Amino acid sequence: MAFRAPPSHLPLESDSSARFLPSIVALMVALLTFSIVGLAALHDSVGQWSGQIEGSLSIQVPPTELANRTPAEREAALQGTVDSIIEQVSTLPGIARIEELSPDTMAALLEPWLGPDEVISELPIPRIIEITPETGFNFDALESRLGVIAPEAVLDDHRIWIERIADVAFSVELALALLIVVLFGATMLSVVFATRSGLSIHHRIIELLHLIGAQDGYIASQFGRHNRRLAFFGALIGLLIALPVSALIGWLGLRAGWPVPSLVLSPTFIGLIVAIPFIVAMVAGITATRTVLRVLHRML
């Protein structure tokens, strides 16, 4: 087996590190996996949501100076303004779709807050026109044309909301990325402490090995293989803990209506998650080997 320790002249299996190092690595890797999955899910979800918002515009046509008219007169005047906007804006380049949000749809959206349709029909509700842009769309040209057709209309391209969401998402993603670095660094730091502890415990045996001709590289390789094996099994346990919990959270999210981020299910991301124990084990082995070489160089 790749991680079976070959015969060693150092009784490293009796060290306390053989008991506590896998537990620490398991905890750190579980938290590391949660952070990586959370970072990927957040980045993918925010990207999809922002893309959906960026792909749509809306024009609000308020009933300005029409509040004193009867509902029928108000609706007729609003409908004339809406028809004029649709007719002239649809000729602009880059407009894939332009459509009015029907009064019935508006009433259905407002009914939970404002009551039945009879109440809504008496209120001066603005009309909403939805626009789907495509290649060649010019926001400034649309804004200028709209100012000529209906100065009271409001063009909403969601840029303010997108910028705010992007700022918050970037802050959270940066925090998660820093947490991943801190967790990985803490894992390697625990390997360093375990290695130094082993050197202190086996100091006399190491001196004896030097007397019979053992080189520093041989002793360092013993510690490297030992810590690599412990780190691998600890990381594997941590991964096996994190994956079911992450799957449970995802299942609860599906039941709540949240879409599954496509990035989390991509082969590249799955390969990265599966590779975590191997990466941790490899870095732990290198860290232990370098630590031993540095300490022995100072001791001898």
UniProtKB/TrEMBL annotation:
The keyword Methyltransferase does not apply. GO terms for biological process: cell division. The keyword Membrane applies. Keywords: Cell cycle, Cell division, Membrane, Transmembrane, Transmembrane helix. The chain crosses the membrane at residues 20-42, 174-194, 230-254, 269-293. One of its GO terms (cellular component) is membrane. Coiled coil: none annotated. It comes from the Bacteria. InterPro entries: FtsX (IPR004513). PANTHER family: CELL DIVISION PROTEIN FTSX (PTHR47755:SF1). This is Cell division protein. It comes from Thalassospira profundimaris. The lineage of its organism: Bacteria, Pseudomonadati, Pseudomonadota, Alphaproteobacteria, Rhodospirillales.
